[in-house]
Specification:
By secondary structure, this protein is α/β, with parallel strands linked by helices. It folds into two domains: 241 residues, Carbamate kinase; 145 residues, VC0802-like, CATH 3.30.2130. It is built from twelve helices and 20 strands. The chain has an eight-stranded mixed sheet, sandwiched between helices. It has a four-stranded antiparallel sheet with strand order 13-18-20-19, sandwiched between helices. The chain has a four-stranded antiparallel sheet with strand order 15-16-14-17, with helices on one face. Helix 2 runs antiparallel to helix 3 and helix 11 crosses helix 12. Bound molecules: adenosine-5'-diphosphate, aspartic acid and magnesium ion. Magnesium ion (MG) binds next to loops.
């Protein structure tokens, strides 16, 4: 008999009707003899609703209280699913993250899981019950409720699968699996039968929100068999695999994009040691995550330093830069919130030449200006004007013929 962890996202539990449908699905798996641990998100829109309530009271809500608030969303969906399962004669027990004892660090609103106690889960499974765990939350050593960052239920599922040594961790969502790009943006996006952990990690960190980054990291580290599939349609979905298992890897796995960024430029700083540290250091010290950073080649002894941050941090970053301006003798600080980042990802880049030039050609063909370029071993990212985002994603998807069936891919 196999043990499966199944996670259902917000749109999969959006209403009582949806929860009933999930209960049918879970009860069917249980009926086939599998041991099942279910992880649920809050009902669609609920976490956003709670965030908005907090912001009505204060601009920067107290992180500890924010976690107490946000964790309630998942508590609603797990209890309702257990009722629906019980009504079907399928024994089920719900647990919050704290009740399981999913131990995290103390970083409220973006806590990391340290340890999962599987005792209670095993005891329930032994009694023949389906265990339903509230995703996205844990508890600190001191008993404070924490949450794992947006999309964190994916990470709960993978962490439980690792702790229980589950046969598979299945992430059920509102699309059929992982596609070559967001299928909501490009009609021709192709469902991938498998993708490597490395590629999935890049896609997730470059904006494809289908899996939370930490979930992929965790799955890679603990070798959890991870599959993304649809709640609403039957199908094999996408298996996240180790690279070695791939027969032949296409050069490009997919295109990811991120709208939610802003670009800041500190102009005319002197070309001397320590300036980049003063600028970027001041921003990082305030807990703001800096993404792409570029410094242009010095012209007449002065440089421009440009970097991107999350759009929500843009204004605060600008204020910090204005404060450090005099100490680095900068001429000005500029903020541009109308940018987007588009990235090509593929482990095959290591062995295929000319990917970058093909990418730049496709963008040039659409007359899209590239503001920043960054590369790493398996990805190339460009920052462009936001209004061209959709055009850029479609152009790249087309230029690399991602809609086409490729070697190593089964027909879907
Ligand atoms: P859930 O609520 O189930 O966790 P999410 O909204 O977090 O669902 O993630 C699923 C969404 O991710 C899809 O609806 C899709 O729009 C988006 N997405 C972005 N990039 C991709 C991709 N490459 N493959 C599949 N889905 C993607
Ligand atoms: N409910 C949380 C969110 O909306 C966690 C999750 O759904 O994974 O981010
Ligand atoms: Mg999600």
């Amino acid at each position: 008999m196999s043990l499966i962890v199944q996670k259902f996202g917000g749109t999969s539990v959006a209403s009582v009707g949806h929860i009933e449908a999930v209960a049918d699905k879970v009860a069917r798996f249980r009926g086939e003899g599998h041991d099942i641990v279910v992880v649920l998100s809050a009902m669609a829109g609920e976490t956003n609703r709670l965030v908005a309530l907090a912001h009505e009271i204060m601009e920067q809500p107290t992180p500890r209280e924010m976690d107490v608030l946000l964790s309630t969303g998942e508590q609603v969906s797990v209890s309702l699913l257990c009722m629906a399962l019980e009504r079907r004669g399928c024994g089920a027990r719900s647990f919050t993250g704290g009740q399981v004892r999913i131990l995290t660090d103390e970083s409220h609103t973006r806590a990391r899981i340290r340890e999962v106690d599987s005792t209670r889960l095993h005891a329930q499974l032994e009694q023949g019950n389906v265990v339903v765990v509230a995703g996205f939350q844990g508890v600190t050593e001191n008993g404070c409720i924490t949450t794992l960052g947006r999309g964190g239920s994916d990470t709960t599922a993978v962490a439980l699968a690792a702790a229980l040594e589950a046969d598979e961790c299945q992430i059920y969502t509102d699309v059929k699996g992982v596609y070559t790009t967001d299928p909501r943006m490009v009609d021709g996006a192709r469902l991938l039968r498998h993708i490597t952990f490395e590629e999935m990690l890049e896609l997730a960190s470059l904006g494809a929100r289908v899996l939370q980054i930490r979930a992929v990291e965790f799955a890679g580290k603990y070798k959890v068999p991870l599959r993304v599939l649809s709640t609403f349609e039957e199908g094999p979905g996408t298996l996240i695999t180790l690279e070695e298992e791939e027969m032949e890897t296409p050069a490009i796995a997919g295109v990811a994009f991120e709208r939610d960024e802003a670009k800041l430029t500190v102009k005319g700083v002197p070309d001397v040691p320590g300036v980049a540290y003063k600028v970027i250091g001041a921003v990082s010290e305030q807990g703001i995550e800096v993404d792409v950073i570029v410094q242009n080649a010095a012209a007449e002894g002065s440089n421009d330093i440009t970097f991107t941050v999350k759009r929500g941090d843009a204004e605060r970053t600008r204020q910090i830069l204005e404060q450090v301006m005099p100490s680095v003798s900068a001429q000005s600080v500029e903020l541009d919130t109308k940018i987007a980042k588009v990235s090509l990802v593929g482990v095959g880049m290591r062995s295929h030449a000319g990917i970058a030039s093909r990418m730049f050609k496709a963008l040039a063909g659409e007359n899209i200006n590239i503001q920043i370029i960054t590369t790493s071993e398996i990805k190339i990212s460009v920052v462009i004007e936001e209004k061209y985002l959709e055009l850029a994603v479609r152009a790249l998807h087309g230029a690399f013929e991602l809609e086409k069936h490729q070697s190593g891919e089964a027909e879907t």
